[in-house]
TrEMBL record:
<protein>
    <recommendedName>
        <fullName>Nitroreductase domain-containing protein</fullName>
    </recommendedName>
</protein>
<dbReference type="InterPro" id="IPR029479">
    <property type="entry name" value="Nitroreductase"/>
</dbReference>
<dbReference type="InterPro" id="IPR000415">
    <property type="entry name" value="Nitroreductase-like"/>
</dbReference>
<dbReference type="GO" id="GO:0016491">
    <property type="term" value="F:oxidoreductase activity"/>
</dbReference>
<feature type="domain" description="Nitroreductase">
    <location>
        <begin position="128"/>
        <end position="285"/>
    </location>
</feature>
<dbReference type="Pfam" id="PF00881">
    <property type="entry name" value="Nitroreductase"/>
</dbReference>
Amino acid sequence: MRAVKLGSRIYGPGWGLKRLSPSFVSSSCSARACASSAGTGMAEEGRTTQDGDPVDLAMSVLVNYHEETKHRSRKYARGPHRLDWANQPNPFRRYDGARVVPLDHLPESPTRSSDPLWPVIFEESLAPKPLDKSSLSQLLYDSLALSAWKAARRSTWSLRVNPSSGNLHPTEGYVICDAIEGVSMTPFVAHYAPYEHVLEIRAEISVEKWRYLSSGLPPGSLLFGFSSIFWRESWKYGERAFRYCNHDVGHAIGAVAIASASLGWNACMLDGYSVHEIGCLLGLPQVRVSTDRGPVRGVMRELETEHADCVLAIFPSGLTISEQPNYQVAKLMGDVKWQGQMSALSKEHMSWGIIYEAAQASEKSAVTSAAITRSLPLPDSIITSAEYEPVTVRQVVRKRRSAESMDSTYAMLAEVFFQILAKTLPTGSGETQGAPRQLPFGALPWNAEVHLVIFAHRVVGLQPGVYILVRNEAYTKELAKLMKPEFSWEKPEICPPSLPLYALQYGNVTGLAQRLSCDQEIAGDGFFSLGMLARFESAMRDFGPSMYPRLFWETGLIGQMLYLEAHAFGVSGTGIGCFFDDPVHTVLGLKDNKFQSLYHFTIGVPVEDKRIQTVPSYPAPPEI
């Protein structure tokens, strides 16, 4: 553990009730639904209305959603008054009747020479492994699979490789791929079921369809799709759930990108699809959920459907995508015969209409061209003398845990602190920050929009205080102009020259960090905590309303890197979704929506709860 024990000279490592009839369609994207909007995406984009410009209307909806779901010290965002345990959503989606393909179980091993050590995948591209059942199994095992089970008294609950707000896991994963021996004799679309580590074959498609879908991709590529079930998060968190679901999409993107790199593969987002096209590609129901504010309780199966999020291309490192893929897929997939019925998650539901209003307003509703990026090996990614634990990539990703509480009697070595921050940079050290190049940020097709406001508590040699890591240096002057004029914006003397870290104000900020993070002690007990500050309203103006969830994806991706870097140094991290939004902005002197804090995080020495037993991930106990 790369930490210092303080005081020691030893360095050691109220809702309404209403019964609603479900407005549910078939368990897949119907031929009529897909074909009707082929070539145009969904019809809303570009549509003129008597009420004004559709982009302005969508922006207004999203800004309103963001304002209404802010936590304030005297008024938290709306959520359930109590947890309805009888209707807690099942965290495991299944497609009953689909053909099930068991995948290989490949536990991590410190003695397996083929598993690279953690720093290696950031410094060099590994020789790509062939795409076969074994490598596909490892990709999923090291990204979205179960990582352990926890047991306390009569309760058991699962943990996964990809972190999730409240361990509720709204994110679902899909694989679209050419034929693989032992999986499918033809190209296929499959849903990943982590409970048993299996693929559910939703559809077998023709070779011609796969060639169209994979146009421009190098040989040995696959497509990886994500969707979200908002109900899983809103069951606990109410209206703020849309934010948390999009954090988790970012966590999952990071998990898949890192697992891909360990196989010698690259991952990049294909961001030209509309939401409708992705739904047709993945075989998701085309459902519009009521946006009536509510909350309304009843049987509403439409709340259990999945919202299409994004698609990644996974391909061998060293190769490139030669041209824009074919994003017009609705008509192509219109005659696909989908297999399996979506399993039910709850008996009754609670609808928070503002979530679905925001989701609809932020949908990318038409096919567009999009930038194609990829992560590059960066030999200078190690900027300090900090030593990682001798752990492999697979050990890091599968043993990552979220700390429940932290021990405030430890401090972090400065070189470790700086190295962790360097891994959150989009471009890599020694470059002007902004463009997405460093793993895993090369998966995103936009320049960095999120900066880190750091509350430093216990970092050896670094004065406590408020700092900022500018992840896109094009905005340094704007940030300085908008923030408090008394902020110093000076570079710490011990800071590596390549790290765009600036001290804003010195002083003990432990109590401040706790207060801003909904009075959670963990925000002050770690070595440091931070808030992720995004360019907000102007980013949506520049790129469209669909940028709203993407800003949260970027914060989730940063959070995933913080989780993994912390574990690689022998400590732990924890994402913090509960924070007082506007008080954070007040501390910084921000007075409008140009920048907004979207996600908080802390890193420190975890305090183990010895009452809780950890058991292996597989075989899983009997499913509830």
